[in-house]
Each structure stands twice: as structure tokens, then as C-alpha cells.
Fold:
Amino acid sequence: MNKNGKIFEDVAKGQLNFIEAVAKLAASSGAIGELPELKIDHDRQRRCGFPEFIYGEGKTLEQLLTGIPEIYNRAKAVLITRVPGQFGAALQEAFPAGEYDPVAKVFRIRNAKRKLKGKVLVVTAGSSDSGVAREALYTLEACGVGGEYLPDVGVAGIERLFASLDRLRSADVCIVIAGMEGALPSVIGGLLSCPVIAVPTSVGYGAAFAGVTALLGMLNSCASGVTVVNIDNGFGAACAAARIINSINNKIT
Structure:
């Protein structure tokens, strides 16, 4: 009897519960990569429609150096967000095919052959939001989704936004990134029929409270149906957009 057969037999006998069985099946299939202090979920692409990524903040350089080949050997692409600045050069030296963006705090190895689907427009209120926007753009590409960038069209010079209405209306999803009072997603949400994902940033003076003011403003948007993610979370917004694009694509195909 093979290993999986033994797992099913133990379940039938009541010697193994459902959760334990699922964990053992995942381990035996190689879906979970075993590294010291780092378990890579190789099954995420099948379940969620995008691969495993690494959140770099709080991890050691050694953990990142061992995690990168574990992911790349399966997915042929790597994305690490929130990489501490002091690790960027070391990762670049160890993996010359990759690139480190100090503004986005992202290290990635691209799969240039991957075909991108859909069109997500990443919009920023100001150039100070570019780090969050670039994190979102890198994440979209790593998810297999097409992304375009429309920077610096905040409400303080709203004519810049209106000049880009054709681009906005051509998008399948809009990710709208803003700090200060966080007004831009409400404006765009009132102009477009596509899903709008709002990202508050920590940009702003004292009463912006490191993004809390923008977050509360977006949560209280008068434009119905605007979705809001956490402060500075370009990564999370891009993953949400990828789920929407995958859902659309699956229905079409």
C-alpha cells in the first residue's frame, strides 16, 4: 500500500481526522516545501490562481536566499515584498537574473515568457505613492495579470484625471492609491463601472495619522462598491485584482 492509501485507510478506521489527513496528503504530494523555518506552499497556484510569494520583512537574509530557489524551481518566477534595504544588493548578487527595486522594496525574478491576461490600471493620487503602486504592478505581473500605470492624477489637479478618462474606462479593474484625505477612489468610483480597489497610503502630514485618515475616508466612500485594502498594501490590492481577472477569464474560457 502506498503512503496515500495508508492515510485513507487510517481515516476510515477513525485513527486520523480530516484535518490531519489533509496535512499529510499535502506533505506527501510535495505541495509544501520544507525549509528551515520556512514552508513554501507550492499548491497555491492551483487553489488561488497565483503562486506563492514571500513577505520579506522580519525574515533573515539566509531565509530569503534559501526560499528563492525553492520557489523558482517550481514557478519559474519569484516575488518578495517588503525586502529590507540592506538585503537588496546581496539578493541581486546571489541571483543576477533578478532585480531589486528599493522604492517598492521588492525583489523579483520575472518569467518573461508568461502570457498576461486582463488589464488592471494602477492609479496614484501623487508621485509620493509610487512605491505602493510599483509593488502592485510587480505583483500583478507575478500573478499573470496585465498592469498599466497612471500616476499623479489626484484631486488637487483633477483636470489631470479627466484627461485620462479613456484609459480609465478601458480597464477591467482599477487599483486607486492615495494618501492625505484619500479622496481619489471616491471620484473614480463615481466615474467607472469596473471594480475599484482603493489603497490608502501613509503619505501625509500629522493629521493623516500615517494613513489612518485615508483609510477611514475610503471606507466611508460615497461611491458605492469601492473595495478597500490595508494601508500601503499594494500587494494585497493586486492579489484581489488578480482574483477578479481570473474569475472573468475562467467564465470566458
